[in-house]
Amino acid sequence: VLEDADDMDFADCDALFHETLVAMSGNKALMQTWRTFVPVTKELFLLNFSHSQAVKDTLQERHQLIVKLLFEKDEKVLDVLKSHIAEARELSVVE
């Protein structure tokens, strides 16, 4: 199934956001791991989330909050990141 160009763009932007966070960590092993798994991550995104505008909106809002908290150097960003990871995990599980 060929995905809509907007879905591909959103998946690419989502992957770039996460890659930027990983790069900010300065952890080369983590960056290599990310680069290994990003194609799978993007495919999962396209399979699971691409047809839900509500999920896309939620992800975009969460990403904006993470960026805001990072710029403010607010320690709440750790809780938001943990929550974001947990939400993504829950959304990714296919039952």
List keywords for this structure.
95 residues, mainly alpha, 4 helices
Distance between the termini: 21 Å
Task: Output the number of helix runs.
Answer: 4
Order of helices and strands: HHHH
**Mean of the pLDDT scores?**
86
Low-confidence stretches: none
- Relative strand content: under 5%
Shape annotation? globular
Write the layout of secondary structure elements.
Elements: H1 5-25, H2 28-48, H3 53-72, H4 76-92
Brief overview, please?
The chain is mostly helical and 95 residues long. It has helices at residues 5-25, 28-48, 53-72, 76-92. It is built from four helices and no strands.
Explain what you see.
- The chain is mainly alpha-helical and about 100 residues long.
- Helices cover about 85% and strands about 0% of the residues.
- The chain contains four helices and no strands.
- Helix 1 (about 5-25) runs antiparallel to helix 2 and helix 3 (about 55-70) packs antiparallel against helix 4 (about 75-90).
- It starts with a helix and ends with a helix.
